[in-house]
Amino acid sequence: MARPITLSTVVPLIAIPGQESALSAVLASLQPKALEEVETYQWYATRITSPAPAPPSASNPNTTPSPTPTPTPPSASNSTPAPSFIVFDTFPTHSAREAHFKGDIPKTLIGYGGTLLAGRPEHGKILTEVVGAKVGRVDGRDGRGEGEEQGEGDVDLKAGLEVGLKVEFEAREGKEEDVRKFLSDAVSLARTEQQTISFYALHWPGTHKFGIIDFFASEAGRKAHLGGEI
């Protein structure tokens, strides 16, 4: 049996204006390298196309939306563009994640700093733990995840995936365990949603911040999920 996924990273990438297509091509070219990393269980490169839906604070008294910075005029020197892409990956151990950080993918992306990428994510802010997950494949077979056998190293879990969602929210003071319970229940519900291919519940250690990242084979699947119980 494979070791369960316990850790992840959520890496925001800001493309230099006009370089979005070039960065997209670079990210696509890195996928084979990710498949070679036996203990990088899942690796997704996603492009942000629209704002995320409202977090579940309206129906859950234990959460509040993540703070949103006050908009700054584009001409201001301290303005920070919103991320254009996100790289999300999962691991069974700290050593597996550290091995990934020392590998070709981060080195390649760092090498594009100043040409395709603006800025560099802060290391401490990209580290997350996996509270629970449903890991699937569009063909209906299980992916590599908690309590499941690890597939072959060249299994492409992205095959057939078209769209996703990323939602972040903050636990109210003293309600962290309640939010964990909410997310655990959400994973169970996601496993009943045939069109929700993969679903990850996350926590940023040392903070009150939690989040959900999930993937679908079609816009219809995403809409069905948004209209569901979670």
Automatic annotation (TrEMBL):
SUPFAM superfamilies, A to Z: Dimeric alpha+beta barrel
Gene3D superfamilies linked to this entry: 3.30.70.100
Bias type Low complexity, positions: 75-84
InterPro entries named in the record: Dimeric_a/b-barrel
Protein name, as recorded: ABM domain-containing protein
Region feature (Disordered): 49-85
Superkingdom of the organism of origin: Eukaryota
Biased composition (Pro residues): 52-74
